[in-house]
Amino acid sequence: MIVKPSADGIVASVKAASGKNPPPVHLWNPPFCGDIDMRIARDGTWFYLGTPIGRAPLVKLFSSILKKEGERYFLVTPVEKVGIQVDDAPLLAVDFDVTGTGRDQSLHFVTRTEDHATMGPGHPLRVVRAPETGEPSPYILIRSNLEALIDRKSFYRLIDLGSREPYRGEEWFGLWSAGQFFPIVPSAELP
C-alpha cells in the first residue's frame, strides 16, 4: 500500500529543508548531556575550545539550535542538550531598516546569524544601563526568549530616530516601532 504524505506534511518538509525557519527547539526536551567548551562573547563571536569559529554557516547552524532555560543557554537537538556559556546576549543585531516615520515607523532588525525581527509588541526593546557609568546596552527580543544586543553603530542610528514622549507620568526619550513606544531614558537625564 502506498501512503501519500499530507499537504501539511509536505509544507513542513519544504520549510524544514529550506532552512528559513529555526527548528522548534522550544518543543524539544532531551536529557542534559553536560557542558561543552563553547562560548559566545559579547561581540557575537562564537568560540569552541577557546578558538573563534570562523565559518559563518556553522555559527548560523549552532544559533538555530540555541535555547535558553532560566538563566542558562543550551544547544539542543531532539536527542541531546549541552550547556554553553554566553557572556551577554546570545545574538548580535548588526543592522536595521526603517519603514515609515515618527509614530508610524517600524524598525526591522537583522542579526549576525541572519535572524530577522521587527521591534514591536512581540519583539520588544530593552535598555540596561551600567551601574558604574550609566552607559546603555540595548537589546531586542529575537525569538523565544533569546535576545540580541544591538551593536553600537546601530544604536547610534536609532538615537537619531528617537523622540520625547509622555510615558508613565513623565517625559521619556525613546523609539516608536510597529505602533508601540519603547522608552530609553527619562528626558530629564538628557543634556
Oligomer: single chain
The outline comes out as elongated
Tell me the fraction of residues in β-strands, as a range: 35-45%
User: How large is the count of helical segments?
Assistant: 3
- Topology as H/E string? HEEEHEEEEEEEEEHEEE
Average per-residue pLDDT, rounded, comes to 89
Q: Alpha-carbon distance between the termini?
A: 76 Å
> What is the structural class?
alpha+beta
- The Cα radius of gyration reads 19 Å
Largest sheet: 6 strands, mixed
**Low-confidence regions:** 1-18
* Total count of strands: 15
Helix content bin: 10-25%
Strand arrangement in the largest pleated sheet: 3-2-1-6-5-4
Compile the SSE list and pairings.
Blueprint: H1 7-18, E1 32-40, E2 46-48, E3 51-52, H2 56-64, E4 66-69, E5 72-76, E6 81-86, E7 91-99, E8 106-111, E9 116-118, E10 125-129, E11 136-143, E12 146-150, H3 152-160, E13 163-167, E14 170-177, E15 180-186
Parallel strand pairs: 1-6, 7-12
Antiparallel strand pairs: 1-2, 2-3, 4-5, 5-6, 7-8, 8-9, 10-11, 11-12, 13-14, 14-15
Q: How would you characterize the overall build of this protein?
A:
The chain is of the alpha+beta class. Helices cover 16% and strands 45% of the residues. A hairpin with a 2-residue loop joins strand 2 and strand 3. The protein starts with 6 loop residues before the first helix and ends in a 5-residue tail after the last strand.
Core attributes:
single chain, 191 residues, alpha+beta, six-stranded mixed sheet, 3 helices, 16% helix, disordered N terminus
Short description:
The protein has 191 residues and is an alpha+beta fold. 16% of the residues lie in helices and 45% in strands.
